[in-house]
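One thing: mind reviewing this one?
=====
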Amino acid sequence: MSSWRTPPSGLPDSTPSQRDPAEAPFFVSYPQLHWQHVCSALHGGTLSHLFHVPPLDASEHTSGVPAGPPPLLSVAIITRNEESNLARTLASVRFADEIVLVDSGSTDRTLEIARESNARIFSEPWRGFAAQKNFAIEQCRGTWVLSLDADEELSPELQTQLRALLPTNPPLDAFHLRRRNLFLGRWMRHGGYYPDPKLRLFRRNAVAFASAFEDRPVHETIQFDGASETLDSDLIHHAYPTLESYLEHMDRYSTLGARLLLEQNRTSSSWLSFHWNVFVIPTFEFFRNYLFRLGFLDGREGLLLHLYHSAYVSWKYAKCWAIARAAGQMEPETNVDAAGIPEAESQLPG
């Protein structure tokens, strides 16, 4: 931001556009000249007898951080090798006052792209999704924080809505954003994948937040116990552009989910619980979302998504059982997931 001040009356303005063209080169060579510096030189120099120069006010000296109110909106993003997504995400938040990016060892052009957008970059070893996102939020200085994944972008409508909303100092401390999930490039409008609201925008110092993201290995969510609203514009989630990326992610997420089940002693140790968790729940998951929640209206992409997502649910329970079996932890369970499938199962991770 420019730090020019208006010179006192009676002294020449050194802006090149207001000078004689013949004199412009002299002034162009000093484009960042600050009037305070001129005053400092005159105050202690040989020309001080020609001008009355008042002492400089100490409050006008600048430091490394600009004076004034804190930024209004900070965007927090975590990355690792996100060059295919990051430029699109950053372009959608150009209006933000601050972008905080926490990277965990990218070897592609991720950091170069972040620098081009003047992001504040922090390198942090991978500690898990929740811990990584909480660290990014801790580095933010804005009144409001918008937490984004690197494969998400704000729709033009959502950009306009945020730019109009935040300066009004809304009374609520948190807002959910409707998420438009894309699978193989197609918007999944049915089957429980839309509007898929996510709490991503919140006042940074709101006392209702214990710690932003709950510390869990997968399906991390923001903990909030206060009043909130859902905005009526979309956050676009470019979830899985290829089948290969989807299957790779589901393999990794099912392993993380299995560890979470293991911590809860849901190891499917009995014959009944094993068949229920590994076969019945995934089958019910498919028919509930594909048929009863109209997932079939999303075409071939919808069929593939619901079919393979039900497989992910089966993998999660099967991996938990296999881990416990290998470790000799096959203790009898006290619960079977007969009460139903958690709502989170019908949503894309992240």
Remarks:
- The longest strand covers residues 229-240.
- Residues 299-327 form the longest helix (29 residues).
- Strands lie at 73-79, 98-103, 120-123, 144-149, 152-154, 174-183, 186-187, 198-203, 229-240.
- Residues 1-68 form one domain.
